[in-house]
Amino acid sequence: MLAICDRIKGRGAPQAALVARNVTKRMFEYAISRQAATANPAQQLVARFIATPQSRTRVLSHDEIGAVLRNVYASDMGRAFKLALHLLAITMVRKSELIEAEWSELDLDAGIWRIPAERMKKEREHWVHLSAQAVAMFAELKTLSHSENT
């Protein structure tokens, strides 16, 4: 396991080496629980000696966000998916909050989306104030969802 991680690190990918160790460790834990293996070769390899986990807090620049959205709209994915990805970017809600949203939560006239407490991480109702652009996207999604159901 050490040799594998060293080879991955050697090509300049220490985070990938850490991921390889973690996946291998979980795989062997599963194999041991199923009596398909008796030892875990990744268990002895301490993660901090492979790489220091890095935060994923890098913020995309305006240009990068624009490039992502342009590529989304230029892709061949369905219109509803394009709108959903754009809504994620401009509302900053979690994917599950958007996917599980119900039309009754949205007041498009007032521009407010009330996400119920039971779907929120901190179990408190959350209000998302919608821009005119977000309201238009939700209105289009509603039209798309109703045309697919009829």
What does this protein look like?
With 150 residues, the chain is mainly alpha-helical. The chain has 2 domains: 2-49, no CATH class; 62-149, hpI Integrase, Chain A (Orthogonal Bundle). 52% of the residues lie in helices and 7% in strands. The protein contains 6 helices and 3 strands; from the N terminus they run αααααβββα. Strands 1-2-3 form a 3-stranded antiparallel beta sheet, with no helix packed on it. Strand 1 and strand 2 (112-115) form a beta hairpin. Helix 1 (2-10) runs antiparallel to helix 2 (14-33) and helix 3 (62-74) runs antiparallel to helix 4. The N and C termini lie far apart (56 Å). The mean pLDDT is 92.
Q: What ranges have pLDDT less than 50 throughout 5 or more consecutive residues?
A: none
Number of domains in the coordinates? 2
Based on helices, strands and strand pairing, what is the structural class? mainly alpha
Helix content: 40-55%
Number of separate strands: 3
Strands of the biggest beta sheet: in what spatial order? 1-2-3
Task: Tell me, briefly, the overall form.
Answer: elongated
- The third-level CATH topology of the largest domain is hpI Integrase, Chain A
Percent in strands: 5-15%
State the oligomer: single chain
What integer value in Å does the Rg equal?
22 Å
